Amino acid sequence: MDAKVLIESFAEFARSKNVDRPTMIRILEDVFRAMIRKKFENDENFDVTINADQGDLEIFRIREIVDDDSEDIWDFDKISFAEARKIEPDFEIGEEVYEKIELEAFGRRAVQMARQTLIQRIKDLEKDILYNKYEELVGEIVSAEVYQILGREILLMDNDGNELILPKAEQISKDRFRKGDSVKAIVHRVDMSNGNPKIILSRTSPIFLERLFENEVPEVYDGLITIIKIVREPGERAKVAVESYDDRIDPVGACVGMKGSRIHAVVRELQNENIDVINFTENLDLYVTRALSPAKVSSITANEETKRISVFLKPDQVSLAIGKGGYNIKLASRLIGYEIDVFRELNELEEEDVDLKEFVDEIDSWIIDELKKTGLDTAKSVLSLTKEDLTRRTELEEETVDEIFRILGQEFDQ
């Protein structure tokens, strides 16, 4: 393979990978200089000129002519007078010899290896470009097409044919995709696995919801409305605390839109995830009240040291505060950064009830704490539920729930 064929084939391959001309030339020179060092041990006295467009390559070895008896005769950039005269009879001592080195002088095997090295260098460069591209896109929304559905992940293809990965853990539980579907997600992170970029997407990240709001709500995109915090149970429920520094703008109304037009677009993308948009405030009591909406809170007691808040509600408001699957109270706690304990206000008919703390000798304190977290603070409030409801609310083992019912039931049987 001569230099012209080698360079032209490499240039064509590089252009197909969208490699710019200066980078292409730099790679070619690096590879040829590596060949020179392997054969001549040093490339400092070599001039390499490449014209990738024409496929031209010129390699010149430059050496200074010294006397045959000179001590410098063995230096890499020196040549003896006698050796120089073989190249050109009229050379004189002190002149420089420019000796052209043909590619064939390196041997067929070295040229083949250079070709493989060039291709590998482009592939490595392509990986670096891909890594850097998506590293800059971390936290941004991308759209890609599903091309393969596996058990633990979905493989997608971007517009440039690059593979993206949407793991099962980063999918909304209600997501159902088919081959050819277009999927929106954020770039969650970019890993390197065995030298190959691994681009991980996410649809469960709070940042994905934030970016969707930016797309649908111009005031958020323009910075007129600030998203203070987002907490999610992907596919089920989310709470978004927003704030506006312009008194003329209602941040909640702007995010929801006329008749819910803006929020509906976000909800549809998130598989009907229920989204509560809350007006942020520094007033902790008011913030808690808003976070627990739609429940109506009667009173609140906060403990700054333990980061716990006791919330008292009328009996018919407790289930609203807890929410389906306990999501409302869990998300409210995460949003405000306090652990919320829900308590029912007892009416006169309930005075004969017994507080759960009276059973601390028979029921472990951590179990009582779990029950109180879901608004169950008396024996009758627990017994009013079915075993299935209590198991679902608290995530306690069935055997533990049976034992709770047995202990509490004995109190009233007596």
TrEMBL record:
Question: Quick check: keyword Cytoplasm in the entry?
Answer: yes
Q: Which PROSITE patterns match?
A: S1
Instruction: Name all S1 motif domain ranges.
Output: 139-204
Entry keywords, A to Z: Cytoplasm, RNA-binding, Transcription, Transcription antitermination, Transcription regulation, Transcription termination
GO CC annotation terms, alphabetical: cytosol
Function in brief: Participates in both transcription termination and antitermination.
- What is its quaternary makeup? Monomer. Binds directly to the core enzyme of the DNA-dependent RNA polymerase and to nascent RNA.
Protein name listed in UniProt: Transcription termination/antitermination protein NusA
Q: Which organism is it from?
A: Algoriphagus chordae
Q: Which gene encodes it?
A: nusA
